[in-house]
Amino acid sequence: MQRITREQARKYAFDWEDEPLLRVRCGEPFEIETYDASTGYFRTPEDKAIPARRPGFDRVPPLANPIGGPVWLEGAERGDTLVVCIDDIIVDDYSWIAIGPRRGPLGESTRWPELSCDYTTKIFRHTPGPSGTTRDGTLHFNDRISWPLTPFVGTLGVAPEREVATSIDGQGEWGGNLNIRDVAPGNRIFLPIFHPGARFYLGDVHASQGDTEFTGTAAETKATVRLRLDLLKDRRVPWMRIEKPSSLVAVYAFRPLEVAVETATIYLMDWLIQEYRFSPTDAYCLISTCPDFRINVYQMCRLGKLNYVAGAELPKKYLA
């Protein structure tokens, strides 16, 4: 099986001029070994998020959120849609979260000074599950609290049309740093293609994350991601879409949040109208009356240039 090793997965931009690290065929499995968002800096509670100590933080934007790629998909052309099928994510034996002054929405808090005066790094231990791996393992928040590992890919996408977008704050219809917990094993992710070969990148795996990623970091970890790529020829999605086994999710990112929510909902309506033969009237009324229609706020942290990421979700049982 072809593989991008961890040391190769140290790109910090989605750049259409990068030479491909892999060339794969539709349906061919391959692996990308990813670094965590700090490129390995955070290992212990003593590793603080002090910018002067962190390699790459003398750059603007900083060299953080490394990704592996590009992967060239044979037969992919501009105007096609890339289908990303994530088969498996095996995370490392720990993850981390880092907070402190001027980081996240409470980085200047006067109500809780410990959040804005001191840098704090928490290290979460991972233990294997019945499989003997972290595939079905447990994250230990502390001695009392734990939960199942729920890994997902935080940053993925194809090379944008013209610009070079950084992996830390680049976002667009082509993908980017979106931190969507539904970019997970068993789901299919759809992305528009802008260059021959698609030029796909992936990195920034999280062991788990709550809605909004409120602090600006979640349970950041290293991982090995096994996946396959496929194509929808001569079909173009307007923005990222996710097909889960039992639901559809249309995604959009913007500030303010209400624009992200409204646009994601409109893109979901368009999906229903174009591919499931709903009339515009029925699609419009369905999302306003169906008790199972949901808005997911995946990322809404005040951090740099990041937009807020929303997903409009509808169960497939209403598509028949």
List the helices and strands and how they pair.
Layout (H helix, E strand, L loop, with lengths): L1 E3 L8 E2 L7 E3 L5 E5 L32 E7 L7 E11 L2 E6 L13 H5 L2 E8 L10 E3 L5 E3 L3 E7 L6 E2 L4 E2 L2 E3 L10 E5 L7 E7 L16 E10 L8 E4 L2 E8 L2 H19 L4 H10 L4 E6 L8 E8 L5
Parallel strand pairs: 1-4, 3-5
Antiparallel strand pairs: 2-12, 4-17, 5-16, 6-15, 6-17, 7-8, 8-9, 9-10, 11-14, 11-16, 13-14, 15-18, 18-19, 19-21, 20-21
Helix pairs in contact: 2-3
Structure description:
There is one protein chain. This protein has 320 residues and is mostly beta strands. It has 3 helices and 21 strands. The chain has helices at residues 113-117, 257-275, 280-289, and strands at residues 2-4, 13-14, 22-24, 30-34, 67-73, 81-91, 94-99, 120-127, 138-140, 146-148, 152-158, 165-166, 171-172, 175-177, 188-192, 200-206, 223-232, 241-244, 247-254, 294-299, 308-315. A hairpin with a 2-residue loop joins strand 13 (171-172) and strand 14. It is globular.
